[in-house]
């Protein structure tokens, strides 16, 4: 009697993977972002301050300034930076790629809006959001959706808007919300139309689907770490030294003129700060005499892009996309400052 082998059962979908990713996201963001920011909002409401400017008391020596700034900066962001690398690697190994492609894989406005929405609860600075953005791009998310996710994290951060309202005034928060929304969608759509997806797609290698989860995750995380963090550290040190020249008048008066709008716009696009650090920076400089126009330019450029964050994305986007992001933020900051000058 001939016996026939029964067909192999179809592989079951591993529901534990997306559930594990969701758990890491919720626990990580609660510990690193949501819970600390909840308490900080009450502090901002009561004291109209969220702390000292990170640019205060800059050393005259560039090397001393670099070390001092790096220490203060990394103490403020290291938890979020670690979480960013973890999430950027886990999104590649726990979330089915077809899910990401269905939500964020097209070149339509809907995918860009989804990327923007996913960026809102992250509340990360541009550097800490960069590893997650790299992970999304490695999973073949469209350039527009990934760019929207990256820019929405710092520009549309709900906690930052609340802090800004209590510290600087709700008119500043409203301007930041409107300008940030225009910047996120506008720049993301420009990048989407300008970047050929086939040039940056990272296909799944055949052996990756057969690797054990932990093995693949550690390999992906190590690759992500090597491609982002070393450049990040070096760039922060260099900018810490350069703040002696980038913000030479941080403790003095900055006039309400086109010259200062342009200067603050350029400095804001180059420099790197932790989440919401633009608020005490602008508060301190306005108390020292800085005008409204350069203040608004700083409020939209400081959090949006920086040299370290752009360097961290050099494997995820082609140079053209990063230049569009940099120039888009710079032009937006300059136009906002010019509009403030015109209305003054």
UniProtKB/TrEMBL annotation:
<keyword id="KW-0812">Transmembrane</keyword>
<feature type="transmembrane region" description="Helical">
    <location>
        <begin position="72"/>
        <end position="95"/>
    </location>
</feature>
<keyword id="KW-1133">Transmembrane helix</keyword>
<feature type="transmembrane region" description="Helical">
    <location>
        <begin position="322"/>
        <end position="343"/>
    </location>
</feature>
<feature type="transmembrane region" description="Helical">
    <location>
        <begin position="224"/>
        <end position="246"/>
    </location>
</feature>
<feature type="transmembrane region" description="Helical">
    <location>
        <begin position="115"/>
        <end position="136"/>
    </location>
</feature>
<protein>
    <submittedName>
        <fullName>Permease</fullName>
    </submittedName>
</protein>
<dbReference type="Pfam" id="PF03773">
    <property type="entry name" value="ArsP_1"/>
</dbReference>
<comment type="similarity">
    <text>Belongs to the UPF0718 family.</text>
</comment>
<dbReference type="InterPro" id="IPR005524">
    <property type="entry name" value="DUF318"/>
</dbReference>
<feature type="transmembrane region" description="Helical">
    <location>
        <begin position="13"/>
        <end position="32"/>
    </location>
</feature>
<feature type="transmembrane region" description="Helical">
    <location>
        <begin position="284"/>
        <end position="302"/>
    </location>
</feature>
<feature type="transmembrane region" description="Helical">
    <location>
        <begin position="148"/>
        <end position="167"/>
    </location>
</feature>
<keyword id="KW-1003">Cell membrane</keyword>
<feature type="transmembrane region" description="Helical">
    <location>
        <begin position="258"/>
        <end position="277"/>
    </location>
</feature>
<keyword id="KW-0472">Membrane</keyword>
């Amino acid at each position: 009697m001939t016996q026939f082998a029964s067909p192999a059962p179809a592989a079951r979908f591993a529901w534990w993977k997306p559930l594990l990713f969701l758990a890491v996201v919720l626990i990580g963001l609660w510990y690193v972002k949501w819970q600390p920011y909840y308490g900080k909002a009450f502090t901002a409401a009561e004291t109209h301050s969220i702390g000292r400017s990170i640019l205060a008391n800059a050393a005259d020596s560039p090397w001393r300034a670099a070390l001092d700034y790096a220490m203060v900066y990394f103490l403020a962001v290291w938890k979020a930076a670690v979480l960013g690398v973890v999430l950027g690697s886990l999104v590649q190994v726990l979330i089915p790629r077809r899910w990401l492609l269905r939500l964020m894989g097209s070149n339509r406005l809907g995918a860009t809006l989804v990327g923007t929405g996913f960026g809102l609860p992250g509340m990360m600075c541009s550097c800490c959001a960069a590893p997650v953005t790299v992970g999304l791009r490695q999973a073949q998310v469209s350039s527009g959706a990934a760019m929207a996710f990256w820019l929405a994290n710092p520009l549309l951060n709900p906690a930052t808007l609340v802090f800004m309202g209590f510290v600087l005034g709700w008119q500043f928060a409203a301007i930041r919300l409107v300008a940030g929304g225009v910047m996120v969608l506008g720049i993301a759509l420009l990048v989407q139309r300008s970047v050929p997806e086939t040039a940056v797609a990272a296909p799944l290698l055949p052996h990756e689907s057969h690797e054990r989860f932990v093995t693949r995750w550690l390999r992906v995380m190590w690759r992500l770490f090597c491609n982002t963090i070393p450049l990040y550290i070096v760039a922060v040190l260099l900018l810490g030294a350069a703040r002696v020249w980038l913000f030479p008048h941080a403790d003095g008066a900055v006039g309400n003129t086109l010259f200062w709008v342009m200067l603050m716009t350029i400095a804001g696009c180059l420099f790197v700060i932790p989440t919401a650090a633009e608020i005490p920076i602008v508060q301190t400089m306005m108390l020292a005499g800085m005008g409204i126009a350069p203040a608004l330019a700083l409020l939209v450029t400081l959090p949006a892009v920086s040299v370290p964050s752009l360097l961290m994305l050099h494997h995820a986007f082609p140079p053209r996309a990063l230049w569009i992001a940099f120039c888009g933020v710079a032009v937006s900051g300059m136009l906002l400052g010019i509009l403030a000058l015109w209305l003054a």
